[in-house]
Amino acid sequence: MKEDEIKNGSCKNIDGVDKVYYDGYWIKFYHPPEDNLTDKKRLIQSLTRRLFNHMEHGINIPGRLLDQIRDEYDNENDPAKKRVKGAMLAGALFNRAADIFNQLVELEACGVKILPGNDLMHACGECLQEALKYGKLVKHRNGDEGIDELWGEPFKAFILSIEDFYRSRYIKISLTMKNIDQVAQYMVNCMKSDPRNQGLEGLILNYAAKARSKCETLRTDAAIFDVWTDFVVAGEKVQEFKTHAPDLVDETAILDDMDRRHLLDQGVRLIADITRARTSMPKSTDKYLQMCKRYQSRHC
Predict the structure, then answer these.
(1) Are residues 202 and 225 in the same domain?
(2) pLDDT at residue 250 in the model
(3) I need a surface site. Which of 76, 100, 212, 216 has the fewest CB within 10 A?
């Protein structure tokens, strides 16, 4: 069957691994856990940890400090400081939602039936939705963008069934894989016309393939040990690549080599950021594209 004839959501076993197809990519398929409050709690906790792991430092504010940081935000007049305090407010709102959800799970474990219209469920949803609003003020740790998609994940896990959430995850991963391939192609296009870079294209494309594999693999999967190792080593090989050229003997040649190494290093770092966050990063990608264009204008 031709790729354009394959429907999104189609499943297939490829080399002994169950895969699901979305927008040009076959992605490793995982069966979702049961849809109950306990499993939703685990899922939201995992997504929240992942969120704070990729965001700027200092915003993981405990939920018990929500009122204080809200007052700080409301009373701040300096725009730069207000953005940071807004980011801290988003973190406190997420943690307040997690606090509420933990109590709901404990009540359910005691035999208390928690209905969807429960006041605490409503309060939890409001906190997550407000956190999503202020999450637009938060930057990724690379400083270029906020990655709104990450802030939306815990909220989606709260309002959707776990099965529907997993389905949305595959759509997001396919977009991430496309972004990985886009950055890798920028790197290849910059380097392929220079005969001194013979062999580099294969290393870059291999790194992109390992990045896609890491992107689709859950941390709880036993395969993660080899997948992560292969991903890191593939990136190091790109960064450590040596040109097929005589020893650098003049200042121009040395600067050219430093320029090339910087471009490769930034490309590897960007793909790593996209892969670990498991979401596309359009602002960072466009910034890297402009860097590639400047490199080509100087060296082509």
Answers:
(1) yes
(2) 64
(3) 76
Other CB atoms within 10 Å distance of the CB of residue 125: 17
Give pLDDT tens digits for 236-292.
999 999 876 665 556 666 677 788 889 999 999 999 999 988 888 888 899 999 999
* Full domain range(s) for residue 181: 173-299
Residue type (1 letter), 261 = R
| Domain limit, last residue, from 159, 193, 228 | 159
Quick one: 184 exposed, middle or buried, by C-beta within 10 A (0-12, 13-18, 19+)? buried
% of the chain with per-residue pLDDT over 70: 91
The span from the CA of 271 to the CA of 102, in Å, is 35
Q: Is residue 232 over pLDDT 90?
A: yes
Query: What does pTM read for this prediction?
Result: 0.79
Is 117 domain-assigned?
yes
The verdict on residue 116 lying in a domain is yes
Give pLDDT, residue 2: 59
Task: Answer for the pair 39, 123: CB distance below 8 angstroms, yes or no.
Answer: no
Question: Do 183 and 136 share a structural domain?
Answer: no
CB 168 within 8 A of CB 32: no
Is there a single domain that holds both residue 155 and residue 180?
no
**Residue at a domain's end among 103, 126, 159:** 159
Closest to 201 measured CA to CA, from 264, 259, 248, 288:
264
Number of domains in the chain: 2
